[in-house]
Amino acid sequence: MEANPAVDSLGSGSANAGRHASDLPSAQADLCSDELQERLIEILIRISGADPSQITPEARLIEDIGIDSLGFYEILIEADECLGIKIREEDLLKFRTVGDIQNHLRTLSPPDAQAF
């Protein structure tokens, strides 16, 4: 699977690591809901190797797209490094579907991403 430059350009070594999305004055804070959703899907595809058509709000993370326990922690890391959004470990372990992650990101992301 080839790397996605849109996601990779925000990747490792991000100066925004550990910051909450509402604290980000940069382009990350200006992500519209469509961009946020697209980047989340790219992250899930990269972690799981799933086909993009499998990544729907109803898709179960474990059963449908094959996210394992390590994959959950990769989601945590990728959300922080690529999206500038810090997900707490206790919240991460409650996610069952892609929609669960989307709903959670809505609560953590800037107001202009609420239409997600």
Using the coordinates shown, work out and report the CATH topology of one domain: Non-ribosomal Peptide Synthetase Peptidyl Carrier Protein, Chain A
What is the highest CATH level, the class of one domain?
Mainly Alpha
What class, by secondary structure content? mainly alpha
CATH architecture of one domain: Orthogonal Bundle
CATH H level, superfamily name of one domain: ACP-like
Give the biggest sheet: none
The number of distinct β-strands equals 0
Q: What's the helix-strand series?
A: HHHHH
Q: Report the sheet-strand fraction.
A: under 5%
The overall pLDDT average reads: 74
How would the global form be characterised?
Answer: globular
Q: Please count the helical segments.
A: 5
For the termini, the CA-CA separation is 26 Å
| Low-pLDDT residue spans | 1-30, 111-116
Q: Helix amount, in percent?
A: 40-55%
Radius of gyration from the CA trace? 13 Å
Q: How is the topology of this model organized?
A:
Blueprint (H helix, E strand, L loop, with lengths): L4 H4 L24 H16 L20 H15 L5 H4 L5 H11 L8
Helix pairs in contact: 2-3
Structure, described:
The chain is globular and about 25 Å long. The protein has a domain of 81 residues: Non-ribosomal Peptide Synthetase Peptidyl Carrier Protein, Chain A. It is an all-alpha fold and 116 residues long.
